[in-house]
Recover the amino acids of this structure.
């Protein structure tokens, strides 16, 4: 933990030479390696936080392409198979007049993952830019991303319930499509990416402006 | 008031690293916020230990019920099918998606169950005054598992799926369905009460660690 302590703003634990444990929150002095309360590895800030976050988001973006292009599930009605993509499902709801459900699905599976990845990238850029930051706004954006994280799993759960429930051989069956795996990967990767991003980096820039 | 102040200790805000004197709050109308970044440090809760023990025991019983009975039934033109909670993940395994199946099982059953069990393992000895200290990894496991418990997300997914199905068939709600809704509510309440300060405070009570 060989850091120059004065690069952290006054009043922070790091500036006082104290590292707070990421698991139990105990403060330890800079020369200790592990937390004396829970045994966790001590760091002032998550190591290579921005690089890890960007790598995970890049992977998520790659998975996002097949998640949208390939069928998420295939409905077989009396022997006629009709595969559906995520957007196809939204269109069906709109055609049936269920605008609210269409909106829920569209937000949870298209809008939120995209917005989430965009926000995480924006945060990574902001931390490295020399411009003046709006700390509070960036922090609330981060909190929103953290909060919204697991809600994108809705679509995966919808498919899993439909697949489990609709298995009436001969009449109607629903099979999962490969896109659902890709989509689950996107959700998990963005959740880990948001977790890897160290918000304290935003506030560390306060003193240097 | 004095007893409160004596419990105060120095902490760093988890989101901006500001050093603070933190006083544990027991007033349900108050939430402790960081003055610098407004991070909600701790929700004020009275009798947090009693509440957590009671909620955990109830939630574990309810979760067992939710896994034992029928979750949902489905009746389309005389053809019936009913599933239990485990089918929601097991059917994906049968259809050739083993990894996804395990992932869903982990998110909706295994992690909520393990989280509640670990929490009870920490809280119950403290509550009963038994000198038994769970190993540190129980506490670390609790912190690691929390973001991956998705019972409430699963329920919203079920509702969306049901709206898709409603026009095709008659839906029958099983005992498990209601039990799982109850479990989600209990889980959200526990999630509201337990934060890392309270959790590690209870672990400290057993290990004579003082901050």
């Amino acid at each position: 933990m060989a850091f120059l302590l004065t690069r952290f703003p006054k009043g922070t634990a790091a500036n006082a030479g104290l590292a707070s444990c990421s698991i139990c929150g105990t403060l330890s002095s800079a020369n200790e390696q592990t937390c004396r309360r829970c045994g966790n590895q001590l760091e002032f800030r998550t190591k290579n936080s921005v690089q890890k976050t960007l790598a995970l988001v890049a992977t998520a973006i790659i998975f996002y392409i097949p998640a949208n292009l390939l069928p998420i599930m295939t409905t077989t009605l009396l022997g006629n198979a009709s595969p559906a993509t995520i957007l196809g499902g939204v269109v069906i709801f709109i055609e049936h007049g269920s605008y609210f459900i269409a909106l829920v699905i569209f937000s949870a599976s298209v809008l939120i993952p995209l917005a989430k990845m965009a926000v995480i990238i924006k945060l990574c850029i902001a931390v490295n830019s020399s411009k003046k930051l709006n700390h509070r706004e960036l922090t609330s954006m981060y909190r929103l991303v953290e909060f919204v994280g697991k809600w994108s799993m809705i679509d995966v759960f919808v498919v899993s319930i439909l697949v489990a429930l609709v298995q009436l051989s001969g009449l109607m069956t629903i099979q999962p499509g490969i896109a659902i795996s890709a989509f689950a990967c996107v959700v998990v990767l963005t959740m880990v990416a948001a977790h890897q991003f160290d918000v304290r980096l935003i506030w560390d820039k306060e003193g240097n402006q | 008031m004095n007893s409160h102040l004596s419990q105060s200790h120095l902490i760093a805000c988890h989101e901006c690293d500001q050093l603070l004197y933190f006083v544990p709050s027991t007033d349900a109308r108050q939430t402790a916020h960081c003055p610098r970044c407004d991070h909600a440090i701790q929700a004020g809760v009275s009798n947090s230990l009693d509440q957590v023990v009671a909620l955990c025991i109830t939630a574990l019983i309810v979760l067992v019920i939710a896994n034992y009975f029928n979750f949902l039934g489905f009746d389309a033109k005389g053809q019936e099918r009913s599933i239990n909670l485990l089918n929601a993940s097991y059917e994906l395994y049968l259809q050739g998606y083993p990894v996804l199946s395990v992932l869903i099982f982990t998110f909706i059953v295994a992690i909520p169950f393990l989280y509640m069990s670990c929490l009870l393992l920490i809280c119950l000895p403290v509550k009963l005054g038994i000198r038994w200290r769970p190993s540190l990894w129980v506490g670390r496991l609790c912190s690691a598992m929390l973001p991956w418990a998705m019972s409430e997300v699963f329920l919203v997914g079920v509702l969306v799926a049901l709206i898709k199905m409603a026009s095709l068939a008659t839906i029958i709600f099983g005992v498990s369905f209601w039990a799982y809704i109850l479990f989600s509510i209990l889980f959200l309440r526990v999630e509201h009460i337990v934060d890392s300060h309270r959790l590690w405070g209870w672990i400290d009570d057993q290990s004579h660690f003082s901050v």
In short: Chain A touches chain B through 58 residues (CB under 8 Å). The CA atoms of residues 18 and 164 of chain A lie 52 Å apart.
